[in-house]
Write a structure and sequence with these properties.
- By secondary structure, this protein is an alpha/beta fold.
- The protein has four helices and seven strands, in the order βαββββαβαβα.
- Strands 1, 2, 3, 4, 5, 6 and 7 form a seven-stranded mixed sheet that branches.
- Strand 3 and strand 4 form a beta hairpin.
- Helix 1 packs across helix 4.
């Protein structure tokens, strides 16, 4: 499985960016694979796991990459879950901490994209959308 991670500090828009990428793929004809969507942690954080599919290609999403909330909920275990369900690619958020990035780097085919920082609240959507497009282009 290829892992495309968006790395950055806490509260920089990583989860929001994953949600934008998810919405763009739905717009582009991907459909949910039933039985995979679930909210991770606090729903206010926009963190989720799900799988989309188009033309036999499965793309998994993990919006939670900032923290570990218990057994089976680490980024490592969530990526393993997506791989076990046949995902060809996984897009994920990954806090810029060595123990979290190690979960991404464990996959030989991985890309770590540094989260672009916004210069102000009025630019959050633009910056996050641009990062989402960069991630999608790596699929």
């Amino acid at each position: 499985m290829k892992v495309i991670a968006l790395s950055g500090a806490a509260d920089t828009g990583k989860s929001h960016t994953i949600n934008i990428a998810y919405a763009f793929l739905l717009r582009d004809g991907y459909v949910q694979v039933p039985g995979n969507f679930r909210v991770l942690g606090n729903p206010e954080n926009e963190d989720f796991i799900d799988i989309l599919e188009k033309d036999g290609k499965k793309v998994g999403f993990v919006g939670m990459g900032d923290y570990i909330i218990g057994p089976g909920q680490s980024l490592k275990s969530l990526l393993e879950e997506l791989e076990s369900k046949g995902c060809d690619t996984a897009l994920c958020a990954a806090r810029d901490l060595p123990r979290i990035l190690a979960a991404v780097q464990a996959y030989p085919d991985h890309i770590i994209i540094q989260k672009t920082l916004s210069t102000g609240e009025e630019n959050h959507r633009i910056v996050n959308t641009n990062n989402a497009i960069v991630m999608i282009n790596e699929i």
